[in-house]
Amino acid sequence: MTITGRPETRDGEDHLVLERTFPAPVEDVWAAVTESDRLARWFGSWTGDPSTGEVEVAWGFEDDLGSEIYVIDACEPPHHLRLHNRDDDPAQVWTLDLRFRAQGSGTVLEFAQVMGPHLPVTDVGPGWEYYLDRLVDSVRTGEVSTVGWDGYLELAPEYAAAFGVEVEESPAG
């Protein structure tokens, strides 16, 4: 296993950017990310009314995390979704930017997260590799993903090298 994430600067902010390719139309991949029952197959579920500009996201595969409010900053179906969690501590805010584009008969998802100095890419990078692989699996099978966590944390040294940081001791490992 090797990393697929890369560092990128956008509008003066550092980002972690990952891409995944799907043998499915854009609308299907969009639905796998934005419909609560489809999101639950690989990440977690959400409740609430998106038209209010926010939803409550419940983590489905993290034992120590409950739920949190996500604010929808941009939603342009089926091509762009930008959102961030609401937190009083700015160091705990995660801003995610997802762009979906057709490629042949499939879809490319570009997933980006703003990476401030407070976010350890050696944990965040392997985590998103895991979740995005789960997304690919759930779109491919139409079922709950069976991709397991084993092996993903071993990507931390590659992420450290790619982003020019030290490997931090993970609370999970």
Textual characterization of the structure:
There is one protein chain. This protein has a domain at 6-29 and 76-163: START domain (Alpha-D-Glucose-1,6-Bisphosphate, Chain A, domain 4), CATH 3.30.530. The longest helix is centred in the C-terminal third of the chain and has 21 residues, at 121-141. The chain has an 8-stranded antiparallel beta sheet with strand order 1-2-8-7-6-5-4-3. It has 4 helices and 8 strands. By secondary structure, it is an alpha+beta fold. The chain is globular and about 40 Å long.
Give the tags.
173 residues, Alpha-D-Glucose-1,6-Bisphosphate, Chain A, domain 4, 4 helices, 8 strands, eight-stranded antiparallel beta sheet, alpha+beta
Question: What's the structural blueprint in terms of helices and strands?
Answer:
Elements: E1 6-10, E2 13-22, H1 26-34, H2 36-39, E3 44-47, E4 54-59, E5 67-76, E6 80-85, E7 95-103, E8 106-114, H3 121-141, H4 156-163
Antiparallel strand pairs: 1-2, 2-8, 3-4, 4-5, 5-6, 6-7, 7-8
